[in-house]
Amino acid sequence: MSSVESAAAHAERSPEATRSRTVVWQDPLASAAEGAELAGIDYMRALASGELPPAPFAVLLRMHPVEIEPGRAVFEGQPGEEHFNPIGVVHGGYAATLLDSALGCAVHTTLERGVSYTTLSLEVKMVRPITAATERVRAEAEVLYRGRRQATAQARLTDAASGKLLAHGSATCMIIG
User: Cα separation of 169 and 139, whole Å?
Assistant: First the structure.
């Protein structure tokens, strides 16, 4: 039984414990086509300002870019219980995804129009759990090296209220185009 089927079956048996969330998103391919016509920094700024719609997974994870500069990207997210793992804390994949997004977007700010990238490697170190008490997290990433074919970046994920380090990571991205 899939997790979707299991949740639906449990919803019928325990409606008092059931929660739901409606998600609205736009066609990601149309947005990507618009973005391909912009320099990386301009595309990232258009996403951060809301001029272009967010990626569907960003809506699902309740995360968004809040600061964009050349070679730097800052994302914030609002983890909720829909991001919990079976032991009652936010799944580590949430932290990894937020870090990967900030890292990749920091690299994206360095790209010329029509050039893209993909993550080659991602390393994440968890330091503290993200719990129900964590209302907002902040991932700050910066490019360390930008070559012709590859770029590397590092990032920190913190509790936005306390500033406590939750995780940190690094990525290597392949430049395409």
Answer: 10
What is the 8-class DSSP label of residue 51?
A: S
pLDDT tens digits along 113-129: 999 999 999 999 999 99
Q: How far apart are CA 59 and CA 55, in angstroms?
A: 7
Chain CA centroid to CA 139, Å = 9
Q: What is the pLDDT of residue 122?
A: 98
Rounded CA-CA distance 106/144 in Å is: 10
Amino acid at 133: A
Number of helices followed by number of strands (H, E) in the chain: 5, 6
Nearest to 174 by CA among 107, 105, 98, 120: 120
pTM of the model: 0.94
Lookup: tokens for 169: 């990571």
What are 140's strand-pairing partners?
Answer: 74, 156
Please give the backbone phi and psi of residue 28, each rounded to the nearest 5 degrees, phi first.
Answer: -70, -25
Low-confidence ranges of the chain (pLDDT < 70): none
- Chain segment 77-87, per-residue pLDDT in tens: 999 999 999 99
Q: Provide the token pair at 145.
A: 């090296």
Output DSSP code: residue 141.
E
